[in-house]
């Protein structure tokens, strides 16, 4: 049987499908259109109804394999890996995409090793090579200083994890109602590994905060020293936003790594992104260019950040940011 088709690994938590599942469908639709093949979403969870799974169809999937089981309610890599590998052996997808989330970064390497498949982690771009139809997987390398494009021409399935928030979620298209197929997968109970038990889960609030924020105020080398981030902290506080930073600022130890935005940091898609003293290196732009509205403040009118900005202010941030804070205070924004 020939390997064909594209799979995306959907994620669910507390009985709800996570937004990153729809981001993967955006990627999958582009690739499946180029290959002229079927797009399938795999959802391993518990207590997910067919009505909920239907949203994956409305957002672009041609088929959904839905496996509900108490053993799949919480992510345990052995259980998820066993079920996914059984599906792979039976249906032989050519390409499998997962989000580079905590679970995706555990599941995909586990599956790739067992299937002797190629895997590229933390991709920011995906494409199809015209002559070979191989998956082209682009990701940061050498500390984020270059972008490497990788392919696995001799092994199937081709597997990749994709950086969350690096693309927009696929939109609901109600014209697709009734056009897809949801298959309740009848798994083998022996696939569940009882050696591992989930005891508890602890969330790192600082780690997730910046990616979930609707407003991000970010600073770069132009702030000159750590203490000057107080200006941005004040602005972020008034806007109910969070603080981000370029790699330059992180490398200078002005902020901790969870605040870093870019290829070697986080990817964010806030409603508002304010970049102060950030020149706009390609590595940084890759982590924030999907923000809805971008405001850039920089003394250099030729700074690359202005190419992606919706609004640009050419000037001294040490004059502009205090003025903005003062105006917000006058408007009663505290």
UniProtKB/TrEMBL annotation:
It comes from the Bacteria. FAD binds at residues 246-247, 260-264, 277-284, 298. Residues 6-196 form the Electron transfer flavoprotein alpha/beta-subunit N-terminal domain. Keywords: Electron transport, FAD, Flavoprotein, Transport. GO terms for molecular function: electron transfer activity; flavin adenine dinucleotide binding. Its cofactor is FAD. Binds 1 FAD per dimer. Pfam families: ETF, ETF_alpha. Belongs to the ETF alpha-subunit/FixB family. This is Electron transfer flavoprotein subunit alpha. It comes from Iocasia fonsfrigidae. The lineage of its organism: Bacteria, Bacillati, Bacillota, Clostridia, Halanaerobiales.
């Amino acid at each position: 049987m020939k390997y064909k088709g594209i799979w995306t690994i959907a994620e669910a938590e507390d009985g709800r499908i996570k937004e990153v599942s729809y981001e993967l469908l955006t990627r999958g639709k582009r690739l499946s259109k180029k290959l002229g093949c079927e797009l399938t979403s795999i959802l391993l969870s518990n207590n997910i109804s067919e009505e909920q799974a239907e949203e994956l169809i409305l957002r672009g999937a041609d088929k959904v394999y839905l496996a509900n089981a108490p053993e799949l309610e919480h992510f345990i890599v052995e259980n998820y890996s066993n079920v996914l590998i059984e599906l792979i052996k039976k249906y032989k997808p050519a390409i499998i995409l997962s989000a580079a989330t905590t679970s995706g970064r555990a599941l995909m390497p586990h599956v790739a090793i067992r299937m002797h498949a190629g895997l590229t982690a933390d991709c920011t771009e995906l494409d199809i090579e015209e002559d070979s139809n191989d998956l082209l997987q682009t990701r940061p390398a050498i500390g984020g200083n270059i972008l490497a494009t990788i392919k696995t021409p001799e092994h199937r399935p081709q597997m990749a994890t994709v950086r969350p928030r690096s693309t927009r979620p696929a939109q609901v298209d109600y014209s697709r109602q009734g056009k897809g197929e949801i298959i309740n997968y009848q798994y083998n109970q022996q696939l569940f590994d009882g050696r591992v038990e989930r005891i508890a889960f602890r969330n790192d609030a600082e780690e997730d905060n910046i990616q979930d924020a609707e407003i991000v105020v970010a600073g770069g080398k132009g702030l000159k020293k750590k203490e000057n981030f107080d200006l941005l902290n004040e602005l972020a506080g008034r806007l109910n936003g969070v603080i981000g930073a370029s790699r330059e600022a992180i490398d200078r130890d002005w902020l901790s790594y969870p605040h870093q935005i870019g290829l070697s940091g986080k990817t964010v898609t806030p409603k508002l992104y304010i970049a102060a003293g950030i020149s706009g290196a390609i590595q940084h732009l890759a982590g924030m260019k999907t923000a809805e509205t971008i405001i850039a403040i920089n003394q250099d009118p030729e700074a690359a950040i202005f190419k992606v900005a919706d609004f640009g202010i050419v000037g001294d941030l040490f004059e502009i940011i205090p003025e903005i804070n003062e105006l917000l205070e006058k408007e009663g924004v505290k």
